[in-house]
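Data card: per-record layout.
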Amino acid sequence: MTQPPNQPPQPPNQPPGYGYPNSGDQNPYGAAPGAGPYQQPQYGYPQAGGYQQAGGYPPGGAVPPPGSYVGDPNAPYGYDPYGRPYSDKSKIVAGVLSIFLGYLGIGRFYLGHVGLGIAQLLTCGGLGIWSLIDGIVLLTSNNTTDSNGRILRG
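The structure for this 154-residue chain is written out next.
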């Protein structure tokens, strides 16, 4: 058997073609070497094994053990639809604290806004008006942040 001029030598018992030595036995989709020549994958409905999962999922659908952290340390509670990280604070808790204990600045202390909390404490929550409006804004707004600049959950 003669080799074309620009092709590497082929092993003796392999059909002629393009490629490198022993390339006929290696399946690019992960079949074991020596399992035969590469065959075109079959498409259609999944067989008994189902679809192959994409990377990033544990094999077999396994769930990580409880207590193990698998998320982003900069956003422990995930991201909102705009890509901003969620806070560990709840806007419902902050709003209720501002409405009922706003004259003490408790809602702002809960969020980490110490300066605003002291101002509410010294003015008795703006005579109750500031604390009431602050509580309503905290409950209805989707852009309120904590002291770290993270969007409130809930």
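Known properties of this structure: The CA atoms of residues 22 and 129 lie 81 Å apart. The helical segments are 91-101, 106-111, 114-122, 124-127, 129-140.

See the next section for split statistics.
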